[in-house]
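retry 2 of 3: previous attempt timed out while embedding 2-acetamido-2-deoxy-beta-D-glucopyranose. Reduced batch size to 1 and resubmitted. Inputs unchanged:
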Amino acid sequence: MWMLWLMLLLLSSLAAASSSNVKPGSGCQEKCGHVTVPYPFGIDNSMCAMNKNFFLNCSRGDSPPKLMIGDLEVFNLSIENGSMIASISTAHRCYDGLGNRNSDYNDPYVKLGNRPLRFSDTRNKLTAIGCDTSAYMGDPNGSFWTGCISMCTNESAKLNESSCSGIGCCQTPLPKSLKSLNLTLRSVYDHEDMGKFMPCDYAILADETFNIAEFQASEDKSSSNVTIEWVVREKKCPDDPNSKVYGCGDYTTCYYSENGQGYRCKCKPGFQGNPYLGCVDIDECLDKEKYHCEGKCKNTIGSYTCDCPIGMYGDDVTVPYPFGIDDHMCAMNKNFFLNCSRRDSPLKLMIGELEVFNLSIEIGSMIASIFTSRRCYDGLGKRSSHFNNPSVSLGSRPLRFSDTRNKLTAIGCDTLAYMGDPDGSFWSGCISICTNESAKLNESSCSGIGCCQTPLPKSLKSLELTLRSVHNHEDMGEFMPCDYALLADETFNIAEFRASDDKSSSNVTI
Ligand SMILES: *[C@@H]1O[C@H](CO)[C@@H](O)[C@H](O)[C@H]1NC(C)=O
Ligand SMILES: *[C@@H]1O[C@H](CO)[C@@H](O)[C@H](O)[C@H]1NC(C)=O
Ligand SMILES: *[C@@H]1O[C@H](CO)[C@@H](O)[C@H](O)[C@H]1NC(C)=O
Ligand SMILES: *[C@@H]1O[C@H](CO)[C@@H](O)[C@H](O)[C@H]1NC(C)=O
Ligand SMILES: *[C@@H]1O[C@H](CO)[C@@H](O)[C@H](O)[C@H]1NC(C)=O
Ligand SMILES: *[C@@H]1O[C@H](CO)[C@@H](O)[C@H](O)[C@H]1NC(C)=O
Ligand SMILES: *[C@@H]1O[C@H](CO)[C@@H](O)[C@H](O)[C@H]1NC(C)=O
Ligand SMILES: *[C@@H]1O[C@H](CO)[C@@H](O)[C@H](O)[C@H]1NC(C)=O
Ligand SMILES: *[C@@H]1O[C@H](CO)[C@@H](O)[C@H](O)[C@H]1NC(C)=O
Ligand SMILES: *[C@@H]1O[C@H](CO)[C@@H](O)[C@H](O)[C@H]1NC(C)=O
Ligand SMILES: *[C@@H]1O[C@H](CO)[C@@H](O)[C@H](O)[C@H]1NC(C)=O
Ligand SMILES: *[C@@H]1O[C@H](CO)[C@@H](O)[C@H](O)[C@H]1NC(C)=O
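retry 2 succeeded.
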């Protein structure tokens, strides 16, 4: 009998674990008041947190209960962003309207302690509100101070605005990796000209949710909300991406935060969940919106496959026997088995990494696209980083580039194009030299000016395309910024190629 009860208990705790963000089966509370406390954070029992740095206080005496980290109240904890929202004290300094500072002032000292926490440098700003006001933030050690100054008259100050516009308000960003700071205020003229208008100045560290008008209207101006970044440990990720990382669960990767000065974990692509508890595979087939598939969707660990249903063929491309798709039985043998990728729209017929456009049984050929080689210059004779030397292989299948239908074509005015065997056993190429004036690139076929061509050797299975320049395009100005080397069949048209937006591929006959 009690076995059954135990099993029920186990089952219910497992069910709870799948939807919850706390350690499964631990009995840990997931909420403190309205705030969700996901693992690695924990409350009530230190076993619920990854370690003491993530153990928070939930003051259940308050109504509603308050989640506290040290002496800061926490309103939100985010696993995705590695952040939390907490409130800290503002600085204020008040004047009596006659230029006398009264005793009502506060210069807070905010410290995040020894935990691996830092103020976010991207989401927080120091904001000063006042008309004769300089606000500073500094290291408690006095090792740095930074701030901003706002001067205005009681007439010009428009403090109704929701964001800091510069009148009666100034803002300055935070340095990276701040762990603790002092906020303080100064006044140049002691508010002598301000009358009763704006009795107090404020220095506020707050994130982008801060709204001046709301702040001005609020009764309690003593605190503001900041975004704080947390990390698992203030260490770098290990060099070996496969090694086990402290704090990271299954199917996760480690990443480093400059501001946080340490690492956090995230799910590997294709996985989801809380990376500190371990990620689980995404069943992509259940979310057709996000993971496109019009064919037979099959979930795999970390990914999915999408195959064409038998009888359906790729867009416009007929797949005649001996070729086949979808099922090995449809092809003569594995050499003729192609992939129809229904993840793409329009559909793509693929052989290895090449897209296939036409299969001809009569002449034993197919048309496929391969990458072009490109090298670009800045007009002053300097090569830019914009270049590509593709290497194309037809793999172990019985395929060869057609020697009669394809040519190596170079386009450019100071251009040497080569093709070679990737193992270096041969190189061949052509040279095109011209001036920016003589180049007539409007023509549809390669006429020799600004363009050269050379035939292919027989039986090529794989090759590398590459480009060189004799004078680094020095005399070309901005004319023809890029040279191209491409392998293309007789359908290739220079004018079309020059006019097209995408010059990254060309069609060859195989
Ligand atoms: C925390 O922030 C996220 C995103 O801004 C929000 O969806 C969530 O409701 C917030 N949680 C709490 C407890 O405020
Ligand atoms: C929780 O609160 C108790 C009592 O106020 C205090 O002694 C303890 O240090 C606090 N722990 C944390 C993690 O803030
Ligand atoms: C995480 O960061 C994004 C982008 O900055 C933000 O829109 C989102 O609200 C943040 N989520 C939480 C829970 O803080
Ligand atoms: C003060 O400065 C020293 C060295 O610059 C640093 O090691 C120490 O952590 C600082 N103390 C605080 C409270 O910031
Ligand atoms: C920062 O504030 C603390 C506490 O008020 C004080 O002891 C320290 O001297 C202040 N540091 C600076 C540089 O003013
Ligand atoms: C602020 O707005 C209110 C109403 O929107 C307006 O009456 C008042 O004059 C405004 N104050 C300033 C300083 O612009
Ligand atoms: C602006 O300040 C002057 C004193 O310099 C005072 O006479 C005047 O009433 C103030 N105006 C407002 C709108 O507070
Ligand atoms: C801080 O954020 C919490 C949750 O969004 C909100 O209830 C609170 O009023 C904010 N505090 C301040 C000072 O803006
Ligand atoms: C088809 O695609 C799968 C997964 O992307 C790959 O493993 C397989 O080698 C491909 N087959 C062909 C014939 O290209
Ligand atoms: C394939 O090639 C044949 C013969 O050149 C041609 O008639 C047909 O239109 C081509 N089909 C496609 C989809 O390009
Ligand atoms: C290209 O053709 C257009 C119109 O056909 C002509 O105006 C232009 O001068 C030609 N450019 C070159 C470089 O021949
Ligand atoms: C040709 O290049 C020269 C620099 O050598 C430059 O001054 C001229 O403007 C260029 N002409 C064209 C049409 O780009």
